[in-house]
């Protein structure tokens, strides 16, 4: 997600001419979603060239079985949304065998 965010913000600086950018990162229902929205120039998504930045974003998302989408129109800004499934490891303590509590032995005097 870090590299996707980095590329999305680079695109805003290079191409959008935006005065405001909003970044949201949300985990919900087994998915992490990153969205970057700007109020810049926007573009026709059908006519957009696949520069190296967009190609790299698509390749990274594909490696983790994610989805990448763009929503934009000239004069309305752009939203880039990336979604990836959450793959969690079990908590470390869940993989250990529980050790029964020890009790002090009583001595008879």
Could you give a quick summary of the protein structure above?
This protein has 109 residues and is of the alpha+beta class. It has a single domain, classed as 2-Layer Sandwich (Heat Shock Protein 90). The chain has two helices and four strands; from the N terminus they run αββαββ.
What does this structure look like?
This protein is an alpha+beta fold. The chain has a single domain, classed as Histidine kinase-like ATPase, C-terminal domain (Heat Shock Protein 90, 2-Layer Sandwich), CATH 3.30.565.10. Helices cover 25% and strands 28% of the residues. The protein has 2 helices and 4 strands; from the N terminus they run H-E-E-H-E-E. The protein has a 4-stranded antiparallel β-sheet, with helices on one face. Strand 1 and strand 2 form a beta hairpin. Helix 1 runs antiparallel to helix 2. The protein is elongated, with a radius of gyration of 23 Å. It starts with a helix and ends in a 24-residue tail after the last strand. The model has no long low-confidence stretch (mean pLDDT 84).
Highlighted features:
four-stranded antiparallel sheet, Heat Shock Protein 90, 109 residues, alpha+beta, elongated
Element layout with pairings:
Layout: H1 2-16, E1 21-28, E2 31-38, H2 52-63, E3 67-72, E4 78-85
Antiparallel strand pairs: 1-2, 2-4, 3-4
């Amino acid at each position: 997600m870090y590299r996707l965010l980095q590329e999305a913000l680079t695109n805003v600086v290079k191409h959008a001419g935006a005065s405001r950018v909003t970044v949201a990162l949300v985990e919900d229902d087994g998915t992490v979603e990153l969205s970057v929205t700007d109020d810049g120039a926007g573009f026709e998504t059908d006519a957009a060239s696949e520069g190296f930045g967009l190609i790299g974003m698509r390749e990274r998302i594909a490696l983790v079985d994610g989805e990448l989408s763009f929503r934009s129109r000239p004069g309305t800004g752009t939203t880039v949304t990336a979604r990836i499934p959450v793959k969690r490891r079990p908590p470390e303590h869940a993989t250990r065998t529980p050790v029964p509590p020890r009790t002090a032995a009583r001595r008879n005097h």
